[in-house]
Amino acid sequence: MYRVYVDQKVIHISNEKSFRAFCQEFKEVNAAGGLVENEEGAYLFIRRNGLWDLPKGHQEEGESICDTALREVKEECGITGLELGELLCITHHCYFRDGIWQLKHSWWYAMKGSKKQSLTPQTEEGISDLVWVSRNEVPSLLSSAYSSICELFSSL
Questions:
Q1: 62 pLDDT exceeds 80?
Q2: What pTM does this model have?
Q3: What is the tens place of the pLDDT at every residue in 76-131?
Q4: Up-side HSE of residue 93: CA atoms within 13 Å toward CB?
Q5: Residue 20: phi, psi to the nearest 5?
Q6: Main-chain phi, psi angles of 150, to 5 degrees
Q7: CA-CA 20 to 30 A from 7: which of 39, 50, 96, 132?
Q8: Which of 110, 96, 94 lies closest to 22 in space, CA to CA?
């Protein structure tokens, strides 16, 4: 079963053939990011355009999706020394930009990082805040987070 988010609505697509046909109607974009966990078990959240999110971004030409995930988390948060873990899930969402509908496929990886580093939000990407959030505080943030982030946490 595939879930594709359009705004705060979800479209359920039951099989691969239907999903591929759906994808052909859009400009497809690949992205990757991470669920960064520190030594205390807290997760790194970003506030982007007024909503809670996790760091991620577009894949560059010739770049592996794993390298995209590490690069984007580093760029958006200023964190270094990240350790890449397992692929957690892939989310899909549609948005309208530059006069066309785009379908973004986002690969989400588990990552380990250190709370001891200073963090720097990439403000030119609309990121206004970076916070470490304990596991029991996550549900309260999800009410003002993007749908794909809620899906990621429901898959854990």
A1: yes
A2: 0.90
A3: 999 999 999 999 999 999 988 889 999 999 999 999 998 888 888 898 888 899 99
A4: 20
A5: -65, -40
A6: -60, -40
A7: 132
A8: 94
Q: How long, in residues, is the chain?
A: 156
Minimal CA–CA distance to 130: which of 35, 74, 47? Answer: 47
Q: Which of 83, 76, 136 is nearest to 109 (CA)?
A: 83
Pairing of the two strands 56-58 and 127-133: unpaired
If you search the block for the tokens 């239907």, which residue do you land on?
18
Tell me the one-letter amino acid at 10: V
For residue 152, what pLDDT is reported?
87
